[in-house]
Amino acid sequence: MDETLLTVNNLRTEFQSGARTVHAVNGVSFILKKGEILGIVGESGCGKSATCRSVIQLLPSGGRITGGEILFKGIDLTEKGEKAMRDIRGREIAMIFQEPMNTLNPVTTIREQLTETMPGKLNREKKREEAARLLRMVGIPSPEERLRQYPHQFSGGMRQRAMIAIALASKPELLIADEPTTALDVTVQQQIIRLLLDLRGTLGMAMIFITHDLGAASELCDRIAVMYAGKIVEQAPADVLFRDPMHPYTRGLIQSVPNLEDRGKRLKSIPGHTPDLSAEIIGCPFEPRCPLASEQCRRAYPEVFHLTADHYYTCWNAGKPDGRDTV
Amino acid sequence: MAVEMKDRMEADNILEVKDLTKYFPVRRTLKQCLHHQKPEAVHAVDHLNLTLRRGEVTGLVGESGCGKSTLARVITNLYSADSGDILFDGRSIVRTKAGQKNLYGTRIQMVFQDPYASLNPRMRIRQMLYEIMAVHHLCSPVEREQTAVHYLELVGLNASYLDSYPAQLSGGQRQRISIARALLVRPELLIADEAITALDVSIQAQIINLLCDLRQELGLSMLFISHDLTVVQYISDKVVVMYLGEIVESSPTEQLFQNPLHPYTEALLRATPKIGDRSMIYEKGMQGEAPSPIHMPAGCRFHTRCPYAVMRCSQEEPRLVDCGGGHFAACFRCVAEQNHG
Amino acid sequence: MLRSRIAKKIRGAGKLDAGTIIGLVLLVLVLLAAFFPRIYTRRDPYEQDLLNALLAPSGEHPFGTDQYGRDVFARVVYGTRVDLLIGFIAMIVPFLTGSLVGLIAGYYGGLADAIVMRVQDVMTAFPFTVLIIAIMSILGPNISNLYIAVWLVGWKDYAKLVRSEVLTEKNLDYVQAARVLGFSNFRICVRHILPNAINGAIVYAVSDIMMCMLVGASMSFLGLGVQPPIPEWGAIITEGRQFILTAWWICAFPGLALAITGTALSLVGESAARFLTNDGRG
Q: Which of B233, B272, B285 has the CB atom closest to A194's CB atom?
């Protein structure tokens, strides 16, 4: 039995914006084992970022967790104070972001930013060696020179590598990556994905990888959770999910990604757009866009159906023919 | 006979870009001034040749910073060219006077990348569309509403959007408005500069389908610019691959994807993630990142990242040569193959 | 149409807070004094009554009388119009010209921009009031010269504000799209860039009215602006200055009027700023 690192149970997070309350995360549950890479996939506004920011409790202003529990190594993080969370953030849970230039400090050298989170008992020389080792580990050539440089002297891919190195400095057990490859070119994206896979192999840390790019998720993740309107609508091991998607939203997403084989055919798209999360939604939020929608979907949110032990979805009508799949 | 053929070929070209160059000067540092160094420049577009045929969709692919957006902006006259020429419908649009340039405002149109920045936040959709009709005298004032609704319906929206402000619309809806706005002047050439990059996957598919439909209905010629090869292959008849300001490969779409000739195209194809296929990740990918467009590598621009690079590549610059069937590539390997074959 | 739009906007901006309400109420009171001074008093601000000079505030003369026996309350009320007008004209002319200069400099850039910015730098180097006094002493003391002086000194702030906004706006895609659509530069500037670039200047203008009123009052106090016997708050204070120990009311009430008007304008200006920055793009 693998050891569980993180358990999220029925998490709810709200954002207050003016008079509106946006229910960004609406009862999300998942389990992350040690050394596992979980992908959270969904379109903008589906609550994937809010989920992860809730885990490390770095919500933007107006956001607060209103329910559920987050058990990290058995301790409920929602009950921790800000000071205790600060110890956990950066030490045991680290996070990397989409745009490294907004996260790296532009006026200090890479070396200072790398050594900042290292334990104080190390001396200067030790810290420098450690920093160089980290840069080498994330594949930055001539690290000794690079340590003296500032973030603006790095290219986009190198900055993302530097940010990963900073995240790794404290040897975290969980790395949360919020769209880390979205701003990068495909060739560089491939390099970063490979780097993350290698690091998991050598350091054995668990990872939550947030992305809207199904292709990137399929290359990196062991298991994938698909989110829609603040809820997980389907979860399965990555290969199973792409081979045998059950939820009509997952199917729609996969089919709307152009691939090299289906050239010339008309792309399948999901009609309509995502619902307003500040309004109360009765029934299934995907119902207005769903090809399988039935009366039942309008009345009640679907139960969780387990196909296998690790593959579940929330849909009343999944598996019924929808007219899209006719070959 | 041959001359006639040539004439007909040229008449079919809606846009010809000839030896086009656009540099952006970089400000000198104090040290460089003191040492009397020449000011450096970003070589955004470097002696580029490109031909778009009437009624065709040409996909232009390249990584960020390769100069594809600059090219679009030179063609639409947002930037002026440093040298070279652009022929639209056989006539130069680089050498016309400023006053006449606006004439092309109605013949070449562009859809921009960021749907949140490309619509004036203080104007209703109605005002935006009416303004264009008024400026270009497209129809009489009484027909304006009807025309506006017609174009909204063309892009899959309806009259209820007329009185919205852009802030009230989603990204996909805004991008549809941008397309309607561009089509309103009945352009012959539509340039889509990363027009779907900022949208969600499901919305991307909607917009790609929309552009395909519009092309069929209106017989538009299109230059579809994207960094994403998979998107480009859906919509394009021909694909052009750009690297550091110049074209490295150009070919009918099918051929390019089946048999990429340039190592850069090959690397791009290989780096594109494929759903449910994890094998590619363990293959040897391209190393490093594109060099700075200020200090161009000598010889072939790609040789610093190319897995097949030999001595010659760093000394000599390969020319774009025909490798048969309208498939052009700028790589010594193709030339060698051709010589042997 | 316009009214319903404004009403919608106000509703959209959320409930009015206490500060805005107080500001609006004060501003209405001040504006009433400016437009309909007879609501407040039946007395003539010029009527002298030497027998009743320097009377302390009482039911008859709520603000007392000055050395010529004129009713200070009437003079303060009638002064409102003079002062507001000074504030308004001294604001609006620099606002219009400065915004125009900023728009042109920002949009076209190049030499025009360089010249405007250097002139502006030079003018910023001198303290505001000193510059006005200098210009006034060259032109001679009267009210229209005061306007000219404030104009020469005041336009640069608007130019700077608008220019920096224009510089960001003109590179946004909607402006590029307008250019691709073949719109004229004039149309792009006025219809597209200006409405998006003017907010900062409007907010500044509201608080600038107060600054201009103060400058007007100060200049009149120094004898460079409005000349007696016109009831202007600064001029009234000058006249009352020599009696400050015996008849404090002559100086105190015009000062109070200035303070109230200032408070009203700054409260309204602050909520206008919040309102404009929240608008449209959120």
A: B285
Q: Kindly list the residues from chain A whose CB atom is less than 8 angstroms away from the CB atom of residue B291.
A: none
Residue B137, both tokens: 């005298």
What's at A81, amino acid-wise? Answer: G
Residue B328 bridge partners (DSSP)? B250, B322
Find, in chain C, the residue whose alpha carbon is nearest to that of B132: C181
Of the candidates A309, A194, C143, C24, which has an alpha carbon nearest to the alpha carbon of residue B280? A194
Instruction: Calculate helix-pair angle for B144-154, B125-135, nearest 10 degrees.
Output: 110
10 Å Cβ neighbour count for C14?
12
CATH architecture of A4-92+170-313: 3-Layer(aba) Sandwich (3.40)
B286: nearest CB among A187, A243, A257? A187
Question: Model confidence at B338, in pLDDT bands (50, 70, 90)?
Answer: low
- Write the DSSP symbol of residue A98: S
ipTM metric: 0.83
Contact B185 C180 (CB under 8 A): no
- Residue B25: its H or E element: strand B13-25
Please state, as a whole number, how many other Cβ atoms lie within 10 Å of the Cβ of residue B286: 22
Pair of tokens at residue C160: 């700077």
Per-residue pLDDT at B97:
63
CA angle B269, B275, B281 (to 5 degrees): 60
Reported as type and span, the H/E element at residue A20 is strand A20-33
Asked if residue B289 lies in contact with residue A158, where contact means CB atoms within 8 angstroms, the answer is: yes
Whether the CB-CB separation of A285 and A228 falls below 8 Å is answered with yes
Which of residues 180 through 239 in chain B touch A, CB cutoff 8 A?
A: 200-206, 208-209, 212, 227-231, 233-234
Q: Give the pLDDT of residue C278.
A: 62
Would you call A267 and B254 a contact, using CB atoms and an 8 Å cutoff?
Answer: no
| Beta carbons of B233 and A268 less than 8 Å apart | no
pLDDT digits (tens, 9 = 90+) for C145-193: 888 998 988 899 999 999 999 999 998 999 999 988 888 899 999 999 9
Q: Where are the domains of chain A?
A: 4-92+170-313
Query: Which residues lie below 8 Å from residue B192, measured CB to CB, with a gap of 6+?
Result: B110, B111, B211, B222, B223, B224, B225
Task: Sketch out chain C's domains with CATH numbers.
Answer: 70-259 (1.10.3720.10)
- Cα gap B262→B264, rounded to integer Å: 5
C92-123: per-residue pLDDT in tens? 999 999 999 999 999 998 898 999 989 988 88
Dihedral sign computed on CA atoms, order B132, B133, B135, B141: negative
**Residue B276 to residue A239, Cβ atoms within 8 A:** yes
Tokens coding B263: 């190592």
Model-level pTM? 0.83
Six-digit token string for B328:
């052009």
| Whether the Cβ atoms of residue A224 and residue A236 lie closer than 8 Å to each other | yes
